[in-house]
Amino acid sequence: FCTPCLQECLKPKKPVCGVCRSTLSPGSRALDLEKQIEMTETTCNGCNKKMYLSKMRSHAASCSKYQNYIMEGVKAVTKEPLHNTRNFPNRFTFPCPYCSEKNFDQEGLVEHCKTLHSMDAKQVVCPICASMPWGDPNYRSANFMEHLQRRHRFSYDTFVVCDYDADEDDMMAQVLMRSLRDK
């Protein structure tokens, strides 16, 4: 995750998982996992030296052969990009349509607007809807706050694997069916 996206997920008010957006609860250290990392051996892909996984990060930082190995991989991947990322809209983070704040996930944008813009009557374009294939990037919602409350209380991809080429009504039907099954 990039730092701004990760920070948005870890806000003290409501920290959420960066992948599924479920609420994070305070946890305890995974001592069994730590022990396994301490006891598992691996080999450096650069110099072929054997070591425990717990030492690999510090070794990799100082091993010039490992760094060359990584750079060769980066060069191989960046020679021919698989696709032009400019053709794919960002459907994970959104700017606030009222102010200059950026990088909100869907829940973060809803919370931000409820907290700071609940009395703002200016007609704005919903950045979430505008990013969808079925969204109109020029449509200004008459009551954006009501729209947020009704349409964006949850994310479609929480309940289904999103097919952004599908019709919005089909997506909503899938979400409703899955939510009824999960009860």
UniProtKB/TrEMBL annotation:
Write down the chemical reaction(s) this protein catalyses. Answer: S-ubiquitinyl-[E2 ubiquitin-conjugating enzyme]-L-cysteine + [acceptor protein]-L-lysine = [E2 ubiquitin-conjugating enzyme]-L-cysteine + N(6)-ubiquitinyl-[acceptor protein]-L-lysine
EC number(s) reported in the record: 2.3.2.27
| Taxonomy, superkingdom | Eukaryota
Arranged from A to Z, the UniProt key words for this protein are: Ligase, Transferase, Ubl conjugation pathway
Q: Which ranges carry the C2HC RNF-type domain?
A: 44-63
Note one Pfam family from the annotation.
zf_C2HC_14
Q: InterPro entries from the entry? A: Di19_Zn-bd, RNF_E3_ubiq-protein_ligase, ZF_C2HC_RNF, Znf_RING/FYVE/PHD
Q: Which GO terms describe its molecular function?
A: ligase activity; ubiquitin protein ligase activity
Pathway linked to the protein: Protein modification; protein ubiquitination
Example GO BP: protein polyubiquitination
**UniProt cross-references to PANTHER family, sorted A to Z:** E3 UBIQUITIN-PROTEIN LIGASE RNF114, ZINC FINGER, RING/FYVE/PHD-TYPE
Q: What is this protein called?
A: RING-type E3 ubiquitin transferase
Lineage in the entry? Eukaryota, Metazoa, Chordata, Craniata, Vertebrata
